[in-house]
Structure formats: structure tokens, C-alpha cells
Design brief:
Shape: rod-shaped
Largest sheet: none
Number of helices: 1
Distance between the termini: 145 Å
Order of helices and strands: H
Number of strands: 0
Helix content: over 70%
Length: 102
């Protein structure tokens, strides 16, 4: 009986060690798969970060160019208005006598 219990104890000890061994392997596989997943996502995150940076820079450039375009158009309108005023002033229409005196 004692021999049988000793055998059972050894089997239990062996099974206990196997359980720890398999648990350690399972944990190692889980850690490895998490590391693989993290490493595969790094390029995606880097790419997303670079793309977001490029998009924000492009947006700022677009806003600046749109502002420049509006500024150029306003300058053209002001210049055209000023030229029209100068033409009227020097065309003689403002220098000629009123219609009532002609």
C-alpha cells in the first residue's frame, strides 16, 4: 500500500510538473503571439502617424493657399476699382463743365 501511494505521489508530482510545464509553454506562446501582433501593428501605427502628420501639413498649406487666393482676388478688385476711379478722373468727364453750362 505504501509503495502504491508512493507511486501515486510520484505520478501526481510528475503530473504537477507537467501542468506547470504546459502552463509555462502556454504563457510563452501567448506572450509570443502578443509580441508578434504588437510588432505587426508597429508599421501600421507608424504609417498612420506619418499620414496624419502629412494630412495636417497639407491642410495647413491648403488653408494658407486659400487665404492667399482670396487676398490676390481682393487685391485685383481694389486695383481695378482704383484704376476705374483714376480713368474717370483723367478722362475729362470730371473736368468738363456740367451739362447745364454747355
Amino acid at each position: 500500500m505504501a509503495m502504491h501511494q508512493a507511486k501515486i505521489g510520484l505520478v501526481n508530482l510528475h503530473m504537477s510538473k507537467l501542468n506547470y510545464f504546459f502552463a509555462a509553454i502556454a504563457l510563452q506562446l501567448l506572450a509570443h503571439s502578443r509580441q508578434t501582433l504588437a510588432q505587426s501593428l508597429i508599421p501600421i501605427f507608424s504609417q498612420l502617424l506619418a499620414q496624419a502628420s502629412q494630412t495636417s501639413a497639407h491642410t495647413l498649406q491648403s488653408w494658407w493657399l486659400k487665404g492667399e487666393w482670396i487676398s490676390i482676388r481682393l487685391t485685383e478688385v481694389w486695383q481695378t476699382s482704383a484704376q476705374l476711379i483714376i480713368r474717370r478722373k483723367w478722362s475729362g468727364t470730371t473736368c468738363s463743365p456740367p451739362d447745364s453750362r454747355q
